[in-house]
Structure formats: structure tokens, C-alpha cells
Specification:
It contains 4 helices and 24 strands. It is mostly beta strands. It has one domain: TolB, C-terminal domain (Neuraminidase), CATH 2.120.10.30. The strands form 6 sheets. A 4-stranded antiparallel beta sheet has the order 3-2-1-24, with no helix packed on it. Strands 4-5-6-7 form a 4-stranded antiparallel beta sheet, with no helix packed on it. It has a 4-stranded antiparallel beta sheet with strand order 8-9-10-11. A hairpin with a 7-residue loop joins strand 1 (47-52) and strand 2. The radius of gyration is 19 Å and the shape is globular. The protein starts with a helix and ends with a strand. 45% of the residues are buried.
């Protein structure tokens, strides 16, 4: 049971965020622009969706449009997270459930034009980290279930139609396969896996065909390194991911306020389909975040946590910021101004 619990916790790539969820984040640093959304308005992407706990302790989804208008998408007592925009930008798929009971997590689709919500899964296992096929007809996601559909301590990757039908299992190993994302041409899926390290908390990046065939490992880790949240470049030639580079297993964060230096940093990396890895950021303290290409492939947006410490070097809060940089990692700039969401913003998509 303890191993099951550890692996369930390991499903949350934002475990470091959750470990300090009771710590407040006060104050802000204003972006020095007359229009605080000027940089965002220059981007080719039309909208950003993200999770924040600014208005609800459970966590809700929000949408920011090109005018700087922020809309709350969900309003309930359920925890929503891991939003992914459809390729046409009209729908969001996400997981929702009780944050304290991961077995309630199910997959939902929200129509951004009508506000209609559709539940796709309904079971007693963790279903999360969903993504769209390019043609919008199918959903890929990670699910912690065994062959009989019972809760299991490691995830496999499944696909289904957008009405929840046609459930198909793509991977089947005793190790974790998770964080799937479809390639822009629809032929491949990238995911993280412990099938090579065979050790919980030691994820690496793999790709496979969209039917689960021919898995190929792209990254190799050492020590307690761990690779998470892979995402494709628009041309399908590169994959971004975030690598944990701390000195202990990444989800052992029970005393994060004191041990935070052992549980950081998380840095942005890129790998091509031949396994050539480049490190794009070189922070020594950055907290967890995800990373995505802009729609035109000319910029990279990544989320990071800038920790706030007291005189005893204990973490007392953190700024969850979205940082824009060039594709070579240069010229980092904060995309959005600090606001009520800066203390709790987690998964996002654009």
C-alpha cells in the first residue's frame, strides 16, 4: 500500500507546489511596461488556459485572451488541473476530482464557446494528463489501472474517442508511462517512463507510434535526475521537457520548506528525435514548471517557481511565473504581470 501511495503521489509533477500549498505568497514585482500585457499581445497564440487557486482552495481553470481579459472557466468544489487546448482552440480537456482523493480524478472536456462540460471517464482510478489528437477526434491520457480496471501503482497510456468510447490501452508495463502528448502530424506520442530506470521517480522521455508500437528512449538520466512534461515543437522535430536536477528523489518533499535546495532545480531541456539533448536554462534554484513552444515555433514559454525564503533560508512562498525565451534559451522575459494568480498558478497550455 505504501508503494501504491508513493506512485500515486508521483503522478503529480507539481508535487513541489503541493508541498508548500499552505504557504502564502505576498507581494509582487510589477512588469515595467505601460501595458502589462504588451508582450503577450505580440504572441501568435490566441489564448492561455491555466489552473490557479486564487479564488478557490480547490483550484479552478482560467482563460486569458489576447485583450488581457481573464475568464474563470470552472466554478465548483472540484479540483481541476492539467488543461490542454484542442488544436483548433475551441475546447479544453482536463482532469478533475477531489484533490485529497486522487482516485476520484476523471477526464473532462469543456467547450469554450458553449460552456458545456462532458465527462469522459467514470471509475475508481486516477485518470489525468490528457491531450488531443491533432484532428480533435481522440484523447490520450495516463491512467493508474490494472488489467481488471482496478487502481494500480503505476500509470499506462490509453486513448479514447472524445465521447469517452473506444478506450484502447497503448502501453502495458509494470513501470510508469505518463504525461503523453500527440505529435503535430498525429503519427507519434511522446511520454515519460521509468521502464528503463525501473525506479519510481527516475523518469525519462520516450516516443512511440500512435498505436503504441516501437517505443524509443530519447533521454538518459543519472543520479536523481528525472524528466517530465514533454511537449512537441510545431514542426515535430524537437521535444521540450523539464529535468529535475536535485540531490534526492523529486517527490520526497514532506519537509520542503527546509529541504528545498535538495529538491531543486528544474531546468528546461530540448531533445531531437535522435536523442541529442540540449539544456536551455541553467538555474540553480528554479522550482517545477512545464514548457511549450509558441504556435509559430519561434519562442518558448515555460513556467517556473521563484522561491521566497526567510532569514533562516526556509521557503515561505513562491512566485509561479510564465517566462518567455528564445528557442536557444536566451532573452528570458516574464510574459504576464504578477497578480492574484502568481502564488498558485500550475499547469497551463496556450
Amino acid at each position: 500500500m505504501m508503494n501504491l501511495k508513493r506512485n500515486l503521489i508521483g503522478f503529480l509533477s507539481a508535487a513541489l507546489v503541493l508541498a508548500i500549498s499552505g504557504i502564502s505568497c505576498n507581494g509582487s514585482e510589477a512588469i515595467s511596461e505601460e501595458d502589462p500585457y504588451a508582450l503577450w499581445k505580440e504572441m501568435p497564440n490566441e489564448r492561455i488556459v491555466f489552473m490557479s487557486k486564487a479564488d478557490s482552495p480547490e483550484g479552478e481553470l482560467y482563460l486569458l485572451d489576447k485583450h488581457g481579459q481573464l475568464t474563470r472557466l470552472t466554478d465548483d468544489n472540484r479540483h481541476e488541473n492539467n488543461p490542454a487546448l484542442s488544436f483548433d482552440g475551441k475546447e479544453v480537456v482536463f482532469n478533475g476530482g477531489d484533490e485529497s482523493d486522487l482516485l476520484t480524478w476523471e477526464i473532462f472536456i469543456l467547450d469554450l464557446e458553449t460552456g458545456q462540460e462532458t465527462q469522459l471517464t467514470n471509475n475508481n482510478v486516477i485518470d489525468a494528463h490528457a491531450d488531443w489528437s491533432p484532428d480533435g477526434s481522440r484523447i490520450v491520457f495516463g491512467s493508474f489501472r490494472d488489467a481488471q480496471g482496478n487502481p494500480f501503482g503505476a500509470a499506462d497510456i490509453y486513448v479514447m474517442n472524445t465521447d469517452g468510447s473506444g478506450l484502447t490501452q497503448l502501453t502495458n508495463t509494470p513501470w510508469e508511462d505518463n504525461d503523453p502528448e500527440w505529435s503535430p502530424d498525429g503519427t507519434k506520442i511522446v511520454f515519460k517512463s521509468t521502464r528503463n530506470t525501473q525506479q519510481s521517480g527516475r523518469e525519462e522521455i520516450f516516443i512511440m507510434k500512435d498505436d503504441g508500437a516501437d517505443p524509443k528512449r530519447l533521454t538518459t538520466t543519472s543520479g536523481w535526475q528525472s524528466d517530465h512534461d514533454p511537449s512537441w515543437s510545431p514542426n515535430g522535430e524537437h521535444i521540450l521537457f523539464t529535468r529535475f536536477e536535485g540531490s534526492r528523489i523529486w517527490f520526497n518533499a514532506a519537509n520542503f520548506a527546509n529541504d528545498w535546495e535538495e529538491l531543486t532545480p528544474w531546468n528546461v531541456h530540448r531533445v531531437d528525435l535522435n536523442g541529442n539533448v540540449e539544456k536551455l536554462t541553467d538555474s540553480s534554484t528554479a522550482g517545477w514548471g512545464i514548457t511549450l513552444y509558441s504556435a509559430d515555433g519561434n519562442q518558448i514559454l515555460f513556467g517556473t517557481i521563484d522561491w521566497v525564503t526567510n532569514e533562516s533560508n526556509q521557503v515561505i512562498g513562491g512566485y509561479h511565473r510564465l517566462i518567455l525565451m528564445e528557442v536557444d534559451g536566451s532573452n528570458p522575459r516574464q510574459l504576464l504581470p504578477d497578480d492574484d494568480h502568481t502564488g498558485t498558478l500550475e499547469y497551463f497550455d496556450w
